[in-house]
Amino acid sequence: MTPPAEPGHIIALFTCMKRTRLFFFIALLTINCSLPTPVTAEVLYYLANFQTSEWTLSRSKIQCKLAHAIPGYGTATFFHSAGKDLSFQLVTYHPSERSEVAYLDAIPPSWNHRNFTRPVSSPTRMATHQPFSLQRTETLRLLYELEKGLQPTFTQTDAAEGTEPLYVGLSAIRFRTAYRYFQDCIASLLPFGFDDINFSLVHFETAKEELSEPAQKRLQQIAEYSLADRKVKKIVVHGHADWVGKETYNQTLSEKRSTEVVNYLIRQGIPKSMIQFESFGEKVPAETNRTEAGRQKNRRVKINVIRDDSADSLQPR
């Protein structure tokens, strides 16, 4: 039996057909939509209401994040990082070992009386002790449904365990404006990411230390990314030579090559304190020195970009 409504509140009963099952949602609403969520009436439904629904954008040249707080449950976040695909992650404030089948469907919000639902992704197992993630295709579908004003809802249920369903909804309130800024952020991301520049080789002509145009372009990318990502803490530069000429000459030549790379990075704005360099002459060949192809690969400077993953990459240096 439904309990009587408290003063100033109404009871709204609405239904939603999900595949072949009929779920009944009971939502306790205030007239001014100020009642906090979740509402408990046999099932748990976590959803931001009109007053609490916010979409927050964090942006830099290497990452865009669009986050949505779900009161009482956790946070839903869309990510797009430089050089990587769009993705989505749902994280709860209260992780547990509960692992159940999860459905993701788009349904109309409570004020829209259309009675329909459509699946956003295939059913999958969802464990609350770890973030739930979606890849690019499903993430794009999720964004599409939110932009249309629908309410994507995760349903966790495990009939075999006899547990009550758990519903987690994403509110479309205030989404569209934030999404426009998110799209602008994505358009301004660097066209390359950390995986593209964290290990680089630049090569040299015989007995030369001058940087070629491709080498300069690569160093520009390394500098631009390193200045944009606060996680980058160090750039390690190692200079090498082939075995043509005397050993002492090749040692000096490898030092000149390292210095040329270091000075170029500094001219691009990299602090000298971030750079660690060493030269090895002909002592550490990458390939055999008995062939021209091998010697060409040995005339090199290796650059490693080192990150501290505990830092916040969205904060500029």
Q: What is the arithmetic mean of pLDDT?
A: 84
Count of the domains: 2
Number of helices: 6
- CATH fold name of the largest domain: Immunoglobulin-like
User: Main beta sheet, described?
Assistant: 6 strands, mixed
Succession of helices and strands: EEEEEEEEEEEHEEHHEHEHEHE
Helix content: 10-25%
Q: N-to-C terminal Cα separation, in Å?
A: 60 Å
CATH architecture of the largest domain: Sandwich
Shape: elongated
Biggest sheet strand line-up = 3-4-13-12-9-10
Q: What's the β-strand tally?
A: 17
Strand content: 35-45%
Structural class: alpha+beta
Broad CATH class of the largest domain: Mainly Beta
Low-confidence stretches: 1-41
Q: Gyration radius, to the nearest Å?
A: 28 Å
State the gist of this model.
This protein is α+β, with helices and mostly antiparallel strands and 317 residues long.
